[in-house]
Amino acid sequence: QSIEWRRENDIDQILSWDPTPEYRYEYPYHIGTTRDNGLFVILLPGRVDVKAASQTAESSEYFQKYLNMILAEITLALKDRKDSGGIPVTQVVLIADFEGFSYTSMLSVAVFRLIKIFASTFDANEPERLKIGYIINASRVFSLMLSLLKPVLAQKTLSKLTAVSSNRNTCKELLLEIISEEELPILYGGTERNSLVNRFLN
Q: Is it the case that residue 1 has pLDDT exceeding 50?
């Protein structure tokens, strides 16, 4: 199934595709190194305008391709990576920021469809890539959405997801346990200034 998915979505060539700078700015993400030389990725489904990305078939297809590119970048970043003990790193720590995710967003058929596609695609084709997933700034809306996603996600994947308190200090302390200040974007309490996710700083 994974091989067929890679062929149908041209995953092996997708890293040669270059989204516009404007699109990268509107839909930022961040890939970095954990304290033990592992890998982490920050996605912001609550802060970015997923609804705008799903308004038309063309925009939805572009966004799906963008998400596939992120998956390909994660795979590339894991290649030949070893942790501080010399053990190969094969999994990624996911940090999903749901700040601002509303009932309006969740009730949008197009928005939910995109999130469902990404979640099910990752689960079906990169099932062992997820080490643990921290859901930060989660609200009741996320809990409801997660219940709707349960039918398409494996129990093993669901068991790796942990909702973190929306308290800024609690979240910062947790993230700094696994990520150094230099690697963690300013938005989340670190000192990394160059990440595009920092555009959401107040």
A: no
